[in-house]
Design goal:
single chain; about 475 residues; alpha+beta; set domain protein methyltransferase, domain 1; set domain protein methyltransferase, domain 2; 2 domains; three-stranded antiparallel β-sheet; about 45% helix; globular; binds S-adenosylmethionine; transferase; SET_dom; protein-lysine N-methyltransferase activity; SETD3_SETD6_MTase
Length: about 475
C-alpha cells in the first residue's frame, strides 16, 4: 500500500513538457525514489554476476556511473545479466499478448519507427505504474528527469540556434502532444483491471519521461532471426549495464551470446581497467544532434559532429560567386551534369537534398562530387572519372587543380554563410558560459559552440588544402 502511494505520488508529480528546464542538471539527476534499492545486490539476487570491483559512484559531470575499485584485467567479465532481467517489449512482439498488452501493442503501432524509444517507453511506463513490478528495483533507480531538449524551455530551444535540431525537437514535442491525445482516447473509460497504467493518467510529460529514459539508456541488440538469417534489432533496457557512461575510447563492451532464445547480456573489459577508473561503453559514433536529442549531453570536439545544409542551386551559385568563382551554373546545370546529380540523388524524382559538412568525411561525398562536377566544363573528363573518386576527398583533384580549388573555395564560402546564420559568435557564447549559464541554457550554448567549431574546423581544413593545391600549381609553372 505504501509503495502504491509512493508510486502515485511520483507519477502525479511528472512535470509538464516545457517547465523542467530550469531544474535540469546534467550532473546530478535525482532518482525516481531517493533511497532506491541496491541495484548490484538485485542483479546478483536475480542470478546475475557483478565483478567484485565494480561499484556505482557519482561522476563529476555525467551523473551516476560504474567505477572499478581495483585494477581489472582485460577480458574479465564485468556484469552478466540473465535473460529475464533486461526490460524488453517482450511477449508483445511475439504475438502472445493478453488484453492489456494488446492495447499497448495498438498504441505502439502508432509510434513512427524513428521514435522507437517511445514503444519500449510504453512498456517502461506500464512497469513504473505496476505495484510490485519485477523491475521496480531498476525503475526506482532511474533519473527523475532528463536534460534532453524536449524538456527545455522555449528560450533554450531558441538558444540552440541550429535549425535542423530545432526541427527535430519540435517534431518530437508535437508527436508527444498528439500521442498524449491518442493514449487518452484509448484509455478513456477503461476499468482499472483493464488499464495498462493501473488507472493512472498518462500525459505528454510522462510519455516524454519514458521516451527519454529509453533513448538515453536502451541498447539495440539481437532479437529473433528473420527468414533471411539476419537478426531483428531489439531495443532493451539493461539494468546496471546502463549505468556505464559513454566514451569514444571505451574500456568495456557489451557481448551478447548467440543463443538468442535464452541469451545472457554480458559486459566485458575491453582493455585493462585501472583502479578508480570509470567503466565506459561507446554508445555509437553519433553527432552532437543525436547525443543531445537522445541522451541530453554534448561532446566537445566530437569527431562525428557535422552540420546539415540543404543542397540548393541558387544558394550554391551565391556561395561560389562570393568565393570568386567565375559564372558558376549550379542553378542551371547542363543535362550531363543533371544526370550525375541524379546519380548522387541530388536531383530527380525524390532527391535527398540534405548534405553535411564536418564529421569523418569533412565534406559529404555527394556534395563534394556535385561541387566538382558543376564547376567542371569538360564533360568527357568528368565522364571518364569514377563517381566514387568524385565523392572522395582523398582522391586528389580528380578533375584538375583549378576545379578542385574552385570546389573547395565554394565549400569554404558555404561555411562562411552557415556561420553567419548563427546570431552569436563563439566568443559571445563563451562569455555567457563564463558568467554562469546553467542547466539547459548551458547545454544549448555548448551545443551551438560545438556546431560553430565544426564549421571553423572544416574551413581551416579546406583552406589548408587550397594552399597546398595552389603551391603545387605554382611549382608546375
Ligand atoms: C546510459 S545512462 C548512464 C548512467 C547515467 N549517468 C545515470 O546517472 O544514470 C546515459 C546518461 O548518462 C549521461 N552520460 C553518459 N555519458 C556521458 C558523457 N560522456 N558526458 C556527459 N554525460 C554522459 C547522460 O546523462 C546520459 O543520458
Amino acid at each position: 500500500m505504501a509503495a502504491s502511494k509512493a508510486l502515485m505520488a511520483s507519477l502525479n508529480h511528472l512535470r509538464p513538457l516545457t517547465c523542467a528546464a530550469s531544474s535540469v542538471s546534467a550532473s546530478y539527476p535525482a532518482r525516481l525514489v531517493p533511497q532506491s534499492p541496491d541495484l548490484i545486490k538485485w542483479v546478483r539476487k536475480e542470478g546475475g554476476f557483478v565483478h567484485q570491483a565494480v561499484n556505482i559512484a557519482q561522476d563529476e559531470s555525467k551523473g551516476l556511473g560504474l567505477v572499478a575499485s581495483e585494477e581489472i584485467p582485460r577480458g574479465s567479465d564485468l556484469i552478466v545479466l540473465p535473460h529475464h532481467v533486461p526490460l524488453r517489449f517482450g511477449s508483445l512482439e511475439s504475438g502472445h499478448e493478453d488484453a492489456l498488452d494488446s492495447l499497448l501493442v495498438d498504441l505502439a503501432r502508432q509510434v513512427p519507427e524513428e521514435l522507437w524509444a517511445m514503444k519500449l517507453g510504453l512498456k517502461l511506463l506500464q512497469e513504473r505504474a505496476k505495484v510490485g513490478s519485477f523491475w521496480w528495483p531498476y525503475i526506482s533507480n532511474l533519473p527523475e528527469m532528463y536534460s534532453v531538449p524536449i524538456f527545455f524551455q522555449g528560450e533554450d530551444i531558441k538558444n540552440l540556434q541550429y535549425a535542423p535540431l530545432l526541427h527535430q525537437v519540435n517534431k518530437r514535442c508535437r508527436f508527444l502532444l498528439d500521442f498524449e491525445k491518442e493514449v487518452k482516447r484509448a484509455l478513456h473509460n477503461l476499468k482499472p483491471d483493464k488499464h495498462p497504467f493501473g488507472g493512472q493518467e498518462v500525459d505528454a510529460s510522462s510519455l516524454g519521461w519514458a521516451m527519454s529514459a529509453v533513448s538515453s539508456r536502451a541498447f539495440r541488440l539481437y532479437g529473433n532471426k528473420r527468414s533471411d538469417g539476419t537478426h531483428i534489432d531489439i531495443p532493451m533496457m539493461l539494468p546496471l549495464i546502463d549505468m556505464c557512461n559513454h566514451s569514444f575510447n571505451p574500456n568495456a563492451q557489451i557481448v551478447q551470446e548467440q543463443n538468442i532464445g535464452n541469451s545472457k547480456m554480458q559486459v566485458v573489459a575491453e582493455t585493462e581497467i585501472k583502479q578508480d577508473s570509470p567503466l565506459l561503453l561507446n554508445y555509437g559514433c553519433l553527432s552532437n544532434d543525436l547525443f543531445l536529442l537522445d541522451y541530453g549531453f554534448v561532446i566537445p570536439s566530437n569527431p562525428y559532429d557535422c552540420i546539415e545544409l540543404k543542397y540548393d542551386g541558387a544558394f550554391l551559385d551565391a556561395a561560389s560567386m562570393a568565393a570568386g568563382v567565375a559564372s558558376p551554373n549550379f542553378s542551371a546545370p547542363a543535362p550531363w551534369q543533371e544526370q550525375i546529380l541524379s546519380e548522387l540523388n541530388l536531383a530527380g524524382k525524390a532527391p535527398d537534398l540534405k548534405v553535411s559538412l564536418g564529421g569523418q568525411e569533412i565534406v559529404e561525398g555527394r556534395l563534394l562530387a556535385a561541387l566538382r562536377v558543376l564547376l567542371a566544363s569538360d564533360m568527357e573528363a568528368v565522364q571518364n572519372c569514377d563517381l566514387s573518386a568524385l565523392k572522395s576527398l582523398a582522391a586528389e583533384a580528380p578533375l584538375g587543380i583549378a576545379n578542385e580549388v574552385a570546389a573547395f573555395r565554394t565549400a569554404i564560402a558555404l561555411c562562411v554563410i552557415a556561420l553567419g546564420h548563427f546570431p552569436t559568435k563563439i566568443m559571445e557564447d563563451e562569455s555567457l558560459l563564463s558568467k554562469g549559464a546553467s542547466g539547459s541554457t548551458e547545454l544549448a550554448i555548448q551545443f551551438r559552440i560545438q556546431k560553430k567549431s565544426v564549421i571553423i574546423d572544416v574551413m581551416r581544413d579546406l583552406t589548408r588544402r587550397v594552399r597546398l593545391l595552389s603551391s603545387k600549381e605554382k611549382c608546375k609553372v
